[in-house]
Amino acid sequence: MKRRSLLQKLAVGAISLPFIGRSLDEYLPKESIAEWKGAFDLTKTQDEAFWKAFKKTHYDVSDKWINLENGYFGVQPKMVVDAYVESIKKVNRESSAYARRTFNQQDLGPIMDTLAKFSGAAREELLITRNATEALNILIQGIDFQPGDEVILNDQDYPSMIEAFEMLEKTKGIKIKRIEVPMIPESDAQLVNLYQAAMTNKTRCILVTHLIHLTGQIMPVKAIADMARPKGVEVIVDAAHSFAHLDFKIPDLGCDFVGVNLHKWFSAPIGMGLMYVKKNRIKDLSPMFGDVGQREDNINKLGHFGTLSFPTLLTVPKAAEFNNMVTIPVKEARLRYLQNYWTKEIGGIANAELLTPTEAKRSCAMATFKLRNLDAGEVINRLYDDFGVFTVKRNLPGNEEAIRVTPNLYTSTSDVDRLLEGIQKLSKV
């Protein structure tokens, strides 16, 4: 079928990619399945008709406002929501018998296999948690820190992780060294040198945020790890915002310890994260929670923290399927395009300042700005009340406040145009 003909079909709506599980009849005419095979490629990055049809088919989002705050947690596609609802019904119907007889014996294995394949890690290197914060806390508190050990953080790392190290500063006598990361760096080398300059012979660990939640800046994690490893320094990676957002596999980061969120860009239901520990390092971590019966080299020794949500876990294969349909390279390209669509206009707007680098390797969906003539709280309220655009305020280092904008795959350029209209008008207030 010619592209024009396909787009005409897309424009009228109910069309989808094939997927395993529920009947395709619920989502699209059968005759359209073949037309969607291989449809997601980089040529579609700027194809608004394509993404309009994609939204109609795969998302159910409120039309009361334009949601440009997708960094908190991800909107689940319809196919994931449907799988989640069915899983809730199944688990509730079968109750304890399901949990005690079926889950571990039948369902957990495929879930872990899916996560292993998607992440590029071995199954035995992965542990499901309730969120990235929990995963990272288990890692941070699992290292055998000694009094005087130094830990390097940057001033834009996630507050909960900073606080985890501050607790160890009080209880174990470690020393925290804080570095300042520029909003818009000159190069990877500049960033690596900041960490290297802070290191001493007492440095035990570096925390690196892969994609900084405040601004969307992407940090050169592997370069930092490659610098630190020969010196015997651990690198813990906060990949809460980068997993299923950027095109990488966990081993690509070159680090032994990684914490991930699955309810952000992976699009699983709220309440699910993932922890990675390189196989030969599991034995070096101590459990945060009491545990019995697990070998020292078994990652499950770190996960004795009560009952997880079975319905949430059961959605993993469907969420992975959705991401694989879109493909991560296409997803990343579309999200970066939407970010660049509005950030390229900021320089021409009076009183507006962009606080996120826009070079391709330095950011993706997220970007942050401020208006010099209005405080950030007023900006987000006015954008919402006057223009129907929902954003969020972020508190930056130095008591500076700014507005973070995060589109998703269901976001259109017309949505972003509305944001720009609001910024332009508010810049003149």
Describe this protein's structure.
- By secondary structure, this protein is α/β, with parallel strands linked by helices.
- It has 2 domains: 40-69 and 327-426, Aspartate Aminotransferase, domain 1; 87-322, Type I PLP-dependent aspartate aminotransferase-like (Major domain) (Aspartate Aminotransferase, domain 2, 3-Layer(aba) Sandwich), CATH 3.40.640.10.
- Helix content is 40%, strand content 14%.
- The chain has helices spanning 3-12, 33-36, 48-58, 78-119, 132-142, 159-171, 188-198, 221-228, 310-314, 316-326, 328-346, 376-387, 413-426; strands spanning 66-67, 126-129, 150-154, 175-179, 203-209, 234-238, 257-261, 273-277, 352-354, 367-371, 389-390, 392-396, 400-405.
- It has a 7-stranded mixed β-sheet with strand order 2-8-7-6-5-3-4, with helices on both faces. It has a 4-stranded antiparallel β-sheet with strand order 9-10-13-12. The chain has a two-stranded parallel sheet with strand order 1-11.
- α4 (78-119) packs across α10 (316-326).
- The longest helix is centred in the N-terminal third of the chain and has 42 residues, at 78-119.
- The radius of gyration is 22 Å and the shape is globular.
- It starts with a helix and ends with a helix.
